[in-house]
Structures are given as C-alpha cells and as structure tokens.
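Q: I have two molecules that I believe assemble together. Could you output structure tokens for the complex as a whole instead of separate predictions?
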Amino acid sequence: MSGLQGESFVEALVSTRARISQLEREAIERNQSAEEELRAHVDRYKSLVLAIAQVIWTHNSKGGMTGEQVSWATYTGQTFAEYRHRGWLNAVHPDDRASTVQIWARAVFGGEPYDLEHRLRRHDGEYRYFSVRAVPVLADDGAIREWAGIHSDITERKRAEETLRDSERRFRELADSMPQIVWAAGPYGHFDYYNRRWYEFTGRPVGISGDESWADVVHPDDQKECLERWHLATQSGAPYEIEYRLRDRMGTYHWFLRRALPVRDQAGRITRWFGTCTDIDGVKHTEEVLRRANVETDEANRELEAFSYSVAHDLRTPLRSIDGFSQAILEDNAGQLDAQGKANLAKVRAAAQRMAHLIDDLLSLSRVTRAELRREQVNLTQLALGIGDRLREADAKRDVQIVVQEGLMARGDTTLLAVVMENLLGNAWKFTSQRLEGRIEVGLTSRNGVPAYFVRDNGIGFDMAYANKLFVAFQRLHTIPEFPGTGIGLATVQRIVRRHGGQIWAHGEVDRGATFFFTLCQGTPA
Amino acid sequence: MNDKIILLVEDNADDETLTLRALQKNNIRNEVVVARNGAEALDYLFGLRAYEGRDTTVLPQIVLLDLNLPKMDGLEVLRNIRADERTKRLPVVILTSSKEDRDLLGGYDLGANSYVRKPVDFTAFAEAVRQLGLYWLVLNESPPEQRRPIS
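A: Yes, here they are, computed for all two components at once.
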C-alpha cells in the first residue's frame, strides 16, 4: 500500500477508464457482441477495484459522485444514495472537509491533478488517515470528462511519524531539562542543535546554530585549542574532551568540561556528534582555593620549621649560661654565700632547667605537626613493655606493677606512637607515685567499632570536671612540686592521635585512678 | 697526653667559658685552641691568615664543633674539613644546642664522628665533657699521622 504503488495504480486506472470509455463508444457503434466484451471489461475493472487495498473512485467533472462506486461503498459503508453527488464528503472527517473542498475546488478549476491528505471514516466508524491523489480523465476534445482518484491508507505512516515526533519532542524535553549544555553537530562538525540551557547561558537568540554560534563565546585564550581539538576529533572520530571557558550573558567566563561522542551508522560512518558542556566553575574554584591553601600551609610549615630551628638553638644557649654560672658561683664563691643565698641560686638553676624542658617539649609538640606520618604495623605491647622497663630502671626505688595485654598491634607511625606511649605511661608512673602498690594496665577495648587502646592507673586520678583541660597545652591540674611537668605532654599526645585520624579521651575520679583511651582511625559516630 | 690539642669552635663567649670550666673541672689539661667562627677554625687547620706558617701536620686530637656559627656555620666547616686531604679523617664531635633532625642528619651525612647535645644543667654538661674527654683523648685511637711527602 505504498504511495508509489498507489500512483502507478492511478495511472493504470486512468488508462483503464479511458479504455472503457473508448469501448463504450465503440459498443454504441458496434453490435451486441461488443456489449458483452464491454461487460467483461467492466467486471474485470470491478474485481480489480475490490482486490486492491486502496479506495478507488471517480467523480464527474463537477466533483460529484455518479454511478456505482464499488470500492468507496465497500470501504466507507456509504450507500449509493449516501455518497452520490457531494454525499461522499460526509465520509470525510468534519475537521478536514473545508480543506478538502478548498484543494479540490482549485484543482477542478485548474484542471490539474491534485494531492491531499484527510481522514476518512471507515464502515466501522473509525477515521483513518488517507493520502488522496486524483487526476482528470480527458474527453477527446480535451475537456475534463471525469476525475479518477485513489485513497491510500497512510495511518501507519502517520503513526510512525507521530512516534518519531514524540521521541524527538521527548529528546528535546530531556535535553532542555538538563542542567548541562547539550548540543549536536553533523558528521563534519557543523553545529545544528543546542538545548535551552545554551541559550539561557549565552543569552544568544534561540535557534542560531552553526560554527559562528560558539566561536566568540569561547574565551579568547581557549579558542585555538578548542578549535584544533574539535577538528582533530571530527577527523579522527575519537571521543573529545576539553576544559575551556565560556562567556555567559553577563560577560563572565565560566569553566566548562566539554565532552563529545560520535554516533555511527551500521557501516561505522559517523552520522552525528552529541556533546555536553558541564559547568565546572565550582570545582575549578575549589581546586584553586585548595592549591592556594596548600601553598599557604607549605609557607606556614617552612616558617614554623625556621622558627623551631631558631628556638632549638638560640633559646637554650642563655639558659646554659644562667645555669652554668649559677653553679660556678656556688662552687667558687661558696664562702661568701649564706644558706639562703645558696638556696636562691639553686632555684635559679632549677628554673633554667625547667625552662629548658619546656622548650624541648614545645619543640617536640611542633615536631609532631611537622613530621611526615608513616603508617606501619606497630607492636604496642613491645613498645609499652620497653617503656615500662626504662621507667623502672630510672626509678628503681618504686614498686609498680605494669600489666600489658599480649599482642597489641596498631597501624601508625612508630616514632610518634612511641611518644604517645611514653607520655601516657610516664604520666601513669608519675601519678601513681603516692601509691604503695602502683598498678598500670595497658590494653585494648573498642569504641564505635574501632580498636581503642587504653592506659589505666590506680593513681591520684582527676576530677572529670577538668577532663576538657587535660589536653590543652600548658594546662596542668597539679602544682609542680606535687608532680613535675610542663603541661605539654598530653597536648602532644592528642596531636599525634588526631594526626592518625583518631580520638583521645579520659576517665578519672579523684584518688581512684585515671584511664586514657585513644583510637588511631575514625569510627562511625556514636 | 698534654700535647694533644683540642680545637673548640664556639662563638658564644659564655659557652666557651663554661666548656673550658668543664674541661678544667675534669682535669683535662690539654691545650685548647678556640676558634670563634667557622672561618677561623679552617684558618687554624690549614695554616691560613692569622695562623699562617703553623705546622699543619700537627692536627688537633679532637674538634668540638658548634653548629650555629656566624659567617660559616658548623656543617659548612665540617664539609670543608672532610673535603681536604689533610683533615678528612680528623675526629669531629658536634657539640651544640639543638637536636633538630636536620642538624643530626646533616652532621652525620657530612661525616661527623659524634653528636653531643649540650645540656642546660651544668652538672650534666660537665659530665658530658668528662665522658667526651675520656673517650676521645684517652680511649680512642687516632688515625696514624700522615707522612709528609718527600720534597
């Protein structure tokens, strides 16, 4: 039921009709036997008309239906009385009648073949789309004798077209609803489609595409590379990706990530390019901020490094003089000093030495920040036992029981974890000094699903009200004569634990001991 | 033992006094040559400028080298000592205030024989000097004296 078939059939129909007319004329002239031959032709015509899928009809020169219209009657279900003269128009969809009459009237006036499309009501009442072609059948004198027409059912084609239009519309709706710029180009890179976002962003009049549409929107510094890469892609057919700047309607440039993929036919030839431009200005901005922050951090670290270096050298030197010459006076001028004088000089020396400890601890705190963190398997059990041995050696008078859980392994920086254990065990040792039977325990528990190591002692403990001050540098809960210290140890421990991504906290009760817990990685929030 | 010279490279007068005092307290009576900056130390070792004409085959038994020195710092002095044929085996002990990683690593990388941090506590400092003296002036065997090429 293709259009071509229909048209060639019309031609055949026209010639058949002409032949019938001729035969009719001949029949009048000739005898009865010719009439039979005519009937045979007419019968053949009727069979042919019914055999084909199209609807075939004839109108007289004025457009009215005359005579029997087998095909028309079969399709529309109209009776002769219903279709005769202009009655056939009633089978045409009411909305299409006016246009049908208009085209038809012009054709009749001009005597030219005509084509139109309209909906025709089938005998069961369903309207279907038809393509109509009609040609005039001329009499011997050239006047229009009648019109021969054919209706070809194009409903399926119409539906296919409709489906195509629908999918096209859906594509546009989809493309327009995207936050990205979407575009399409022909196989040779000629831009022929942009989604709504493009026009909103650039402020260009809707509908303008082609190469001119984008060249001056691209940042001048990016144009050359952008063009070259695009030409390269369209030549090689390779997917294309570039970061470049596009100017928005206000004249501000934004960074975009532009990507394109070729669409190929079955033979592998590129038929189209589809592409997107994603606004990566935020990402670019963040990258830049991050880069600057890194530079600043590096600078700060270098300054800290220089500062620490200078502190390490220059701040200790005068302390040596204070301590050294105080000692010299005590030795060389002992006779000139009374007991009070000697005691005062001893205090000067003690203060200088304490200051030296402070400087050392501060340097160690800052070293924790500066040092590179290397994660490796660390045997905490071994580490703790070693520190315990050294504590016992240094203070052999004391009897402290140190219990360390077997097989405590941790992932962290060996040197830094040693600093943690030294501080925690050193504190436990120090704060159990007033106990007759000191006990220090090192073990493992868990918190929020991650291993939490702990150091527990039965020492003097602390009031939980001050728990938040424990880890603040220079904050001390005891006087120096009571328990000597610089107040930097736990701050250093906390910094190390945090550098490992872990947490540190403590539980304590006055006179009932303290427990310090720490993790070395992040757990799920409680 | 008294012919064994100690070269003390130290710019701080207080530290110089205290070091000499510590040596004295420990009955270390060797001759101490004090260089107050890096260049002076090298002048002494190589017989230059103020030390022109000094017999450079006579090397100190030990160099006590401070790091934080004006003009030429201690590590630079050490580099020069190690780079010269005459002094490349000379025992050098870095005796300084800091124990910063870069000083320690730099010192050992350049071939320091030892690295001692000066304690603030003079009693501890005197003890350190005593041990240094015992080790470097008594226990340690110096490299054999190099023969002077026959001219």
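A: One point stands out. Chain A has a mean pLDDT of 86.
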